[in-house]
Amino acid sequence: MAFWIIATGMTVAATLVALWPLFRASPDEVATRGDHDVEVYAAQLRELDADVERGVIAAGEAETARAEIGRRLLKAAGRAEGSGDGGAAGWMRPGVVAAIGVVAIAVPLGSTALYMTFGVPGLRDMPLATRQAPSPVPGTDIEGLVATAEAQLRSNPDDGRGWDVLAPIYLRLDRPDAAAIAFRNAIRLLEPTASRLSGLGEALTRAADGEVTDDAKAAFAQALTINGDYLPAHFFLALDLSQEGDYAKAEIAWAKLLDISPKDAPWMQIADAALADARQKTGTNAPSTAVAENSGPKAPGPSEADMAAASEMSVDDRQAMIKGMVSQLAARLESNPDDLEGWKRLIRSYTVLGDNEKAAQALTTASDAFPPDSAVGQEIAALGEELGLAPAETARSAPPRPSEADVAAASEMSAGDRQAMIQGMVSQLASRLESNPRDVEGWKRLIRSYKVLGETDKASDALRTAFQHFEADTAAGREIAALGQELGLADAEATQTQ
């Protein structure tokens, strides 16, 4: 209602403005055009006479100009006399009255008709600050676009193209569960392609905190049956082999991936580190594919579809994605430290990424979560030995080396005091090993210390106790046995096999 009141007032004001000149005009108030011209020409004659007196213009030229101005003056005077003849004055003249009527009717009706045709009475206001604000970059409101697409799919759930477009967006938004549903619908409604199946496998992997599950592995395998050179599927299947600890097959898979991938593929750094790790575990000393890529003929490059899929994610994005999945797994284990398989997966993942320091820290945390003498604790320890890792706690818990002041003080002691000090340090080491029996370096130091002190029986007892915590066929067990043989401890090899 307020709008129409304001609009009516503005229309009345505009009509009055248009009518004002018609009401104002009057022969008594405004000189006619003829009278004005007479005044102008009379002034020109006066100026001409002044120019002649000053000698600015010649007499002959002045006469010619005077004649022309006089002619025009007479003509203007005739018009002025004619304009004053009869008729109504001012706005009461018939023509003016008709014009007033037309304006008074046309302006309100015309403006109302135009507004009803082109105007929008219910349009929201558009403040100046809003209109002057920078326009949003197209595509930045991803959540809004996703919400719109979801609304359309709710009304038309059989729109396969819609699911196909939405699925990879869910992955970028870190919504793997929704992405898996979208990929399944796209595969069902359209057709299974290598890209869609690999996307489904990646979504299932990310939903499982980076673990390549059986369903994900099946999706990747099916993708390769459609396109045997589809690179993302090769990547995740190789990752699965590393996670399962099948390093012989993992070495082959990573080497093949590096061989058929372009140099700027987003997974090259990860694949090269994983290949080196697999070769270390299998004892293969061959150079990595990334180093020796020019040593032989290269396998056929990826297809256009492979390149398009690889170009969808930059090197940093792919690296960030994988590290993000590992970080999610680490965060989940903080709230659920009893997940044995999760710890094993995390330790292997850090090793595949080449981050042995974090792998050792994860091994330490996992060892603290499970009793060392339990089957689970021994399984964690065996994994660390398999990967060549030592718990970070081992390094931290090692007794500090003596300072210069300690050495000086020891040199001033008597032989008996010095012997007592050394025996006290050895006793502390033995006590610490009772609470942390998985410290292989600690056991080796304790056995050597007893031998140096001449306490061979205690050295043999420590050797037997160490064998109770380390299996004979492990690297740690073999180190303990070798030390016993080196020190000449009786029945070292027989003790190991008990």
Brief write-up:
72% of the residues lie in helices and 0% in strands. With 498 residues, the protein is mainly α. Residues 85-89, 287-311 and 393-404 have low confidence and may be disordered.
Quote the average pLDDT: 75
Secondary structural class: mainly alpha
Strand-and-helix sequence, N→C?
HHHHHHHHHHHHHHHHHHHHHHHHH
Number of domains: 4
Task: Report the principal-axis shape.
Answer: elongated
Sheet of most strands: none
Biased composition (Polar residues): 281-292
Pfam families: TPR_CcmH_CycH
Organism: marine sediment metagenome
Subcellular location: Cell envelope
What do you see in this structure?
- The chain is an all-alpha fold and 498 residues long.
- It folds into 4 domains: 117 residues, no CATH class; 86 residues, Alpha Horseshoe (Serine Threonine Protein Phosphatase 5, Tetratricopeptide repeat); 79 residues, Alpha Horseshoe (Serine Threonine Protein Phosphatase 5, Tetratricopeptide repeat), CATH 1.25.40; 93 residues, Serine Threonine Protein Phosphatase 5, Tetratricopeptide repeat.
- The chain is built from 25 helices and no strands.
Task: Give structural attributes.
mainly alpha, Serine Threonine Protein Phosphatase 5, Tetratricopeptide repeat, 72% helix
Lay out the secondary structure.
Layout lengths: L1 H23 L8 H22 L4 H25 L10 H25 L9 H5 L9 H14 L4 H13 L3 H14 L4 H14 L6 H13 L4 H14 L2 H14 L7 H15 L21 H8 L3 H21 L4 H13 L3 H14 L5 H12 L5 H6 L6 H9 L2 H21 L4 H13 L3 H14 L5 H12 L5 H5 L2
Protein name: Cytochrome c-type biogenesis protein H TPR domain-containing protein
GO cellular component, one term: plasma membrane
InterPro entries: C-type_cytochrome_biogenesis, Cyt_c_biogenesis_CcmI, TPR-like_helical_dom_sf, TPR_CcmH_CycH, TPR_rpt
